[in-house]
Each structure stands twice: as structure tokens, then as C-alpha cells.
Amino acid sequence: MKVELIKTINEAKNVISFIFQPEKPLSWKPGQFLFYKIPHHRPDRRGIERHFTISSAPFEHNIRLTSKFLRQGGSTFKKALLGLEPGDSIEAYNIGGSFTVEKKEPSYVFIAGGIGITPYRSILLDLERADSIKDILLLYSCRDRESVVFGKLWDKMQKNNKGLSVNYIFEPQLIDKKLIEEKIRDPGKRKFYISGPINMVKAVQGSLSEVGVNEDKIVMDYFPGYD
Ligand SMILES: Cc1cc2nc3c(=O)[nH]c(=O)nc-3n(C[C@H](O)[C@H](O)[C@H](O)COP(=O)(O)OP(=O)(O)OC[C@H]3O[C@@H](n4cnc5c(N)ncnc54)[C@H](O)[C@@H]3O)c2cc1C
Q1: E-strand spans in the chain?
Q2: Is residue 122 domain-shared with residue 217, that is, in the same domain?
Q3: Measured from the CB, is residue 70 less than 6 Å from ligand 1?
Q4: Which residue's C-alpha comes closest to atom 15 of ligand 1?
Q5: 0.85 surpassed by pTM
Q6: Which domain CATH number covers 72?
Q7: Which of 23, 70, 147, 199 could form a disulfide with 74 if both were Cys (CB 3.0 to 4.6 A apart)?
């Protein structure tokens, strides 16, 4: 399927969203991802394809791809993505992923590391629209305030939804056993989602096990390429 770039949005330091219009209506579940192919001159060994979470909610219709760009040492794929102009089209295909929310649990803890925040934009907007934000804590770990992605949206959503609480964890603080015990009452009774770089996701999973959260209460999404 072809998708056409409509515009880009600067989200935070070195983080940009690309808004694409699909050539025909597309359906996806909040939290899922798409593959993209961008053929370009002399690709590095990581090639011309990547997958990215769809950070837009299905009711927004357009596809939002939100990614982080390194000042130095970034891939040729990301350079090609950055080089796209409004009106350019690329290939997008294979929607997939099971980092999705069934809306059946009484309370959720969503944990994000860095650019791992992207699925929660789609998931939370969708839950808000269904009036299903009852008891959700978003724990968002990132470098500093300047690195917060979708910050204005989180402010607005917190104001409009009594059931949502957003906590930023800035470096050097970590989401470890101590922080989980401090921030979360009855962790054993909640459903956890963790999204971010592989090492961060594994470390948080380990801390959750230490405080007694069962494996079947943890859903994880690894973002390779950021460790
Ligand atoms: C389910 C899923 C959803 C994802 N969603 C998103 C998303 O919403 N946003 C997002 O930004 N990313 C997302 N990712 C990760 C994305 O697919 C890329 O892997 C990531 O953005 C890194 O991009 P890049 O490889 O172009 O490297 P760059 O971001 O340009 O650079 C990353 C750094 O890692 C180094 N590096 C890491 N691995 C290798 C390797 N194997 N070979 C060479 N160098 C390496 C690079 O040299 C560079 O220093 C997702 C991944 C998965 C699996």
C-alpha cells in the first residue's frame, strides 16, 4: 500500500512525527506497527525497511510515524525518511503486533522508555474516546523535560481524565523495584505494559517480578536499535 507524506511535526528534541495519508482506508488496533520501505542510494547494511509503531489512533485515519533521529551516526534509512517532502509516497505494509489493550482490566500501568512512548499515544487516545480511562498510570522514563514526547497531549489528557496519572522519570532516576514500590499501590492487582529499548524492558520486567507481578500480567514491546 502506498502512503503519502502530508506533513511533519517536531515533537521534542530530535523526535519528529511523519503524518501519512494511506491511499485507501486502513484499520489497525491501537499499539500495532507497520513496516515501511524506503529505497535509497547506497543503503547501509541495515537496509531499506523498518517497522514503526502507528502512534495515531484509528479514529485519526492518517498514519503517524514518530521516531528519534541521532545528530550523528544515524542510519541511511532514517536519513532517507528525513529527506521525504510532503507529497512523496512510500510503501507501508504488514500491520502487526499484539501490544494492544483489551479494555477488560480494572487498572493499567503503562511504562515507557524514551521513544517507547509511541504506542501509548494511540492506545490512550483510543481509550479516552471509548470513555475507558478508569485507573491508568503512565510511567514515562526519558532523559529530561526537553525529551518528553507528546507532552502537551499528556497535560491535556490528565486534565480531562481523572482516571489518568502521568509520571515522568528523568535521568538519572530509573524505573526499578524501589520506584515501583513507591509509585504503585498493589502492583499484583494491575496489568502492566512495557515499551522501550530491549535492556530497559527486560530490567523493568525483572523489577516487576521482584514485587510479585505475575508474568501473565505483563505485556512487552521491544524497540531494537536504541541500546
Ligand atoms: C514493534 C516495534 C515498534 C517500533 N516502533 C518504533 C517507533 O515508534 N519509533 C521508533 O523510532 N522506532 C521504533 N522501533 C525501532 C525501529 O524499528 C528502529 O529499529 C529504530 O528506530 C532504530 O532505527 P535505525 O536502525 O534506522 O537507527 P538510527 O535510529 O538511525 O540509529 C540507532 C543507533 O543504533 C545503532 N545500531 C543499532 N543496531 C544496529 C545494527 N544492527 N547495525 C548497525 N547499527 C546499529 C546505529 O548505528 C545507531 O547508532 C520499533 C521497533 C519494533 C520492533
Answers
A1: 2-12, 15-22, 33-37, 49-53, 63-68, 89-96, 108-113, 136-142, 164-170, 191-197, 218-223
A2: yes
A3: yes
A4: 223
A5: yes
A6: 2.40.30.10
A7: 70
